[in-house]
Amino acid sequence: MEKPNKKPNNPNFSSGPCAKRPGWKIENLINANTGRSHRSGEAKLKLKLVIDKSKELLKLPDDYVVGIMPGSDTGALEASLWSLLGQRGVDILAWENFGKDWIQDVVKQLQIENLTVHDVDYGQFPDVSKVNFKNDVVFTWNGTTSGVKVPNADWIPDNREGLTICDATSAIFAMPIDYKKCDVLTWSWQKVLGGEAAHGMIAMSPRALSRLESFKPLWPIPKVFRIANNNKIIKSIFEGSTINTPSMICVEDALDGLNWAEKNGGLNFLLDTSIKSFNLIYNWVEKNNWITFLSENKSKEYLSNTGITFKICEDWYLSKNEDEQRSVVKKICKILSDENVAHDINGYAKAPPSFRVWAGGTVEPANIELLLPWLDWAYSEVKESYA
């Protein structure tokens, strides 16, 4: 097979931290409030601006509050688990690595007794008809490490008794989400808008806020998870104060991403960009007999349009054991990285051997289109070496 002669302008297809927006330069951060207290008036204004712009860009309901949390999406999600769970039973769904991590929190750390775990293997999606909404329900919207997403929110009733807590980090800003079906949404700066890492966001509905005011968990809550004290919401968290010291350089970068998205058409622009890239990969997979999606359900509504995950399916490859398969995938990824065509597209380490290409809003569809023939070429090169 002939080697392609045109490369993507940006070879960064990592699923986190993700590609910076087109045209990003370090000079964009020159106005960061470095050397200033994050509690100074100027710094708090910028932190509040991140909150306000995020809420506005996402078109979150007016009565939802938004705050900045330490520890990326992990910190934000765990703050919601530690602060809200324990009043009633819990149903938790997992079909990829991070959902399985939340199971460990609920089972081993919080030790919730009335617990139902809906846990399936990579590539599968749980039977959501079995979820008990008298309980609190914890789930990820997009399976970041499996390439399988929630198809819609129709399975979540409006009259649910428990809270729904959604890890939305690789979905928000890239997938339509029915916010009213989610009492808590968490995400990080490092995903769809390509911000710098270590900071998380949490959005909470009136129902979630009411739980904070009416229920106190039995376990002690670490400071970095504490969004209420003795049934009093720490309102300052949702007004620009933070639990610990944030990086003001990261804050400036988050604002840069939000402003860029806003100037280019807002949420619809971000959604459309991701879907264009996904459709390019979907059509490429459909035309190739050596590759298939990791998801067992090949319907578009179940396939992630951000962390797009696919695997080799030819007989010569399938006859090998898992270690040998990982070696094949690793060789293909190394070729593409050495060529400066695609970095960091090896699938998640705990997932089955696979490729994962990020296609959030900061990735230009033109670069996805240029990547695909390189994938074909690199595969043919490695396959030939095994002949």
Into how many domains do the coordinates divide?
Answer: 2
Q: Which class best fits the helix and strand makeup?
A: alpha/beta
Report the CATH topology name of the largest domain: Aspartate Aminotransferase, domain 2
Distance between the termini: 15 Å
Proportion of residues in helical segments? 25-40%
Q: Which value, in Å, is the CA radius of gyration?
A: 21 Å
CATH class of the largest domain: Alpha Beta
User: Would you tell me the overall average pLDDT?
Assistant: 97
Q: Any idea what the shape is?
A: globular
User: Helix tally?
Assistant: 9
Under the CATH scheme, the architecture of the largest domain is 3-Layer(aba) Sandwich
Task: List the uncertain runs.
Answer: none
Strand content: 5-15%
Strand order of the largest sheet: 1-9-8-7-4-2-3
For the biggest sheet, the summary is:
7 strands, mixed
User: Helix and strand string, N-terminal first?
Assistant: HEHEHEEEEEEEHEEHHEEHHEH
- The CATH superfamily of the largest domain bears the name Type I PLP-dependent aspartate aminotransferase-like (Major domain)
The strand count comes to 14
